Amino acid sequence: MARVVLTEHYSNLESWAGRLLEADDDTAITARRGGSFAFTHGGDHPFSGFTVTVTGRNFTYADGVAVDGTMTGVTIRNGSGQIVMSITNLGSNPLTNDLSQFYTNALGATNGDAGPDSDGKAAMSHLLAGDDTIIGSNGNDFRILVGLNAGDDVFDMKGGDNEIGGSVGNDRIVGGSGFDRITFRETHFNEGQSATGGIDANMVTGRIRDAWGFTDTFTGIEAIEGSRFNDVFTGNAERNEFAGLRGNDTLNGGDERDTASYQNDYWQGGFRGIVVDLETSFSGGQSRGQIRDGFGNRDTVISIERVIGTRYNDSFTGSRDNNIFSGGEGKDSYRGEGGFDRVEFHRFFGDEMTRGVVVDFTRASGQVRNDGFGNVENAISIEAAHGSELNDRIIFGAGDNYMVGRDGSDTMTGGAGSDYFEWWDTEHFGDGDVITDFTATGASADKLGFEVGAFDGMTLTSGVVNGTKATSAAGVGQFVYNAANDTLFWDSNGRSAGGMMAIVELTGVARLTSTNFDLFE
């Protein structure tokens, strides 16, 4: 019954965690003792400088190879000597404490032509073959523990955004305070005890019949990723995110705004874009639709409002609800239908964007002039847009519209109607954003929205002064609008020195009042 503790340094891993226990030609054995054994990765290994230390008793070696011994623990340190992961309490389980077997799994056979190569997944599966307890860090533990992880395990993931790999056994999973996901994507690989069927995940009851027929229980989970079989997902009254992967899946979002995600289809063998129709029928207050996934299978979706696409050519058609669509590198098409619908351009699933997006919703077709990857796309009946992390140009026409430029020097035009422009991260400040037609007065006045918790000194009652500097008390944040250069600033320190950051240029605006702001939590 191993106890696994992940530290904040596990959160900083930049490669697949399976390689932590997988030696290569650049790995050197650095200790062979009766009670300890160690090896250090070097050279081009993705975890170069990391050291794996095994402790126990009665370790024996033949020609330098571990042939016997009982392990009690494994500690992994990074190149600075900081503990990344510790695995203790191995000595009580004969399935997990065999040093000779661990040596073969982690370092491979002495003669590579006559035995297995090193296999980090097998090494981790060996260590976690019992009823284990896994304790997360307070960081983002999104690098899942690899391997079969057999046994009835307990996961306590603490804070941060985490990902937990579903595995054999009746497991209990506590997600913690961040955005946490359970995934069964490992079922795409037939290793060890193969999965036998799709999962049935219910966010209301907090139970999953897993891909091996066991029952997992969970709390504090916001997203679930399925298996290679036909999966069933049932949402609750919160915002849920489901990913079916391969198979003819059923996704029922329930109340709130729920997401169907296909961004990992490519990485699990998907070979085509998705085709989305969120409303083929409507009854009982619910939209029912269909999505052809990245493998060519047909998913049934009920009360799904948001869809994340693939790196291929995706087609999105919405429902009468307010929908949000995210394409990627492909030549995508969007049709919002009813509701207040949004397209987001900041996601990509393999290739990085080469330039900011150019979008003109006043056009009859080809509204997306450049999606950041050089594609021209149709986006019809769309009322809102999120830009990329680069320099974007977003143009709307008549109607009330919503825009977020995100990072980069963005130029936004709201057109006629009462438009809304939003910021929720200080990284969005200081980039040279411009709103070309902001209307500060009248029945169609526009709004500037800010999530107050993201900005130092900002509160729900923060005010605005027209001039060149803040007039609020020292340490009390205030918006400053300088009509001489048409620029809105945020000053987190008030009359104190420093703290002023440019937000956006409001072309031709003479003055602002508190009615032009929407401050929210």
UniProtKB/TrEMBL annotation:
A Pfam family that the UniProt record links to this protein: HemolysinCabind
GO molecular function, one term: calcium ion binding
Gene3D superfamilies per record: Serralysin-like metalloprotease, C-terminal (2.150.10.10)
InterPro entries, alphabetized: Hemolysn_Ca-bd, Serralysin-like_metalloprot_C
Name of the protein in question: Calcium-binding protein
Species this chain originates from: Gemmobacter fulvus
